[in-house]
Amino acid sequence: MSGVVPTAPEQPTDETENQIKSPDPRPDAPPDYNSHFILGPPGPAIPVPAGYPGGLPVGYYSPQQPCAFPSYQLPAGIHPIQYQPGKYHMPNQPVPITWMPGPALMPNCPPGLEYLTQLDNIHVLQHFEPLEMMTSFETNNRYDIKNNLDQMVYIVTEDTDDFTRNAYRTLRPFVLRVTDCMGREIMTMQRPFRCTCCCLCCPSARQELEVQCPPGVTIGFVAEHWNLCRAVYSIQNEKKDNVMRVRGPCSTYGCGSDSVFEVKSLDGMSSIGSIIRKWNGLLSAMGDADHFEIHFPLDLDVKMKAMIFGACFLIDFMYFERSPPQHSSR
Question: Where is this region: Disordered (predicted)?
Fold first, then answer.
């Protein structure tokens, strides 16, 4: 009986129906429902890939052979997303920055200052440098300038050589370069070296900051005034004529509270704006990562806005810049 294929023994029809319709012994089993699935016409035959004599299981396709579904081709220059945005950032990719939309050019406005014409306050956020705390090596300061919507307005970078930074520390002369979203330097701030070993009331010992916008064109100065118990500055125009005054608190080293520097008129009767150094808890006490909030009127002359903006950095270097501790070797 070589031509007969052995099959399973047939069961009576009644027994088969009983097995199919027998209730499920589980107490909470769902009831049986009649399926409404209707088989459709057969699809096109897929060739069996080489190396798989028995074919592949249903639902699997060989990576070496073309599958029955056409693959989607991305346009040129576009890469597929490999991680959920904002959750699993790739270490070798820069963090995306949201910039403030660039305004149109305005007459009688230095190029690059058009952003300030639309703002009445800005935030100055200093980068935290862990290398300074670990190695006691002073690095160049970096700041992010943002609006209330957390959009980047400018980036400020210090440009000082290593010897000057680590030899003079907080008294060092510096150059700060302000760049916009296109990477163009739109403003330069310079502080010359001032000897502090002589009498503080001597004009040669007072700190001064020059603001240039565009770089090479001076628009004003921020000059320190000697005062016995508080920080006092004058904001001057390009001819060194006093325009506004900045009056700080009696103690700038208060722990647990903000330090407010008021911007007033020359007679001290009108309040124009303020420079507020925000208290950031333990980071403000131990780290060198300051947060300033600058307020000024929306309709204030844009050059005076830039001068108040520049005064913030002179205040930071004089009162809130902390040099890393020096580790003495024995």
Answer: 1-33
Domain range for 200 is 121-320
Tell me, what CATH number does 297's domain have? 3.20.90
Residue 41 in domain: no
- Tens of pLDDT along 317-329? 988 886 555 554 4
**What span, in angstroms and rounded, lies between the C-alpha atoms of 314 and 312?**
6
Query: Is 145 contained in some domain?
Result: yes
d(CA 240, CA 49): 84
Q: What does DSSP assign to residue 52?
A: -
Confidence (pLDDT) at 284: 53
pLDDT digits (tens, 9 = 90+) for 4-35: 555 555 555 555 445 444 555 555 555 555 55
Q: Nearest 5°: CA angle at 175, between 262 and 241?
A: 50
Q: What is the pTM of this model?
A: 0.68
Decide if 78 is inside a domain: no
Cis peptide before 214 (omega within 30 of 0): yes
Give 178's pLDDT tier (boundaries 50, 70, 90): very high
Q: How far is CA 153 from the centre of its chain?
A: 11
Distances (CA, A) of 268 to 168, 244, 271: 35, 9, 7
DSSP 151-188: -EEEEEEE---HHHHHHHGGG--EEEEEE-TTS-EEEE
* Residue type (1 letter), 261: F
Q: Is the dihedral of CA 127, 131, 132, 134 positive or negative?
A: positive
Distance of CA 219 to the CA centre of its chain: 29
Structure tokens at 196: 């502090």
pLDDT digits 0-9 by tens, 42-58: 656 555 555 545 544 44
Residue 290's nearest CA partner among 235, 252, 233, 246 is 252
Cα–Cα distances (Å) from 86 to 11, 83, 89, 145, 153, in that order, read: 62, 9, 7, 21, 21
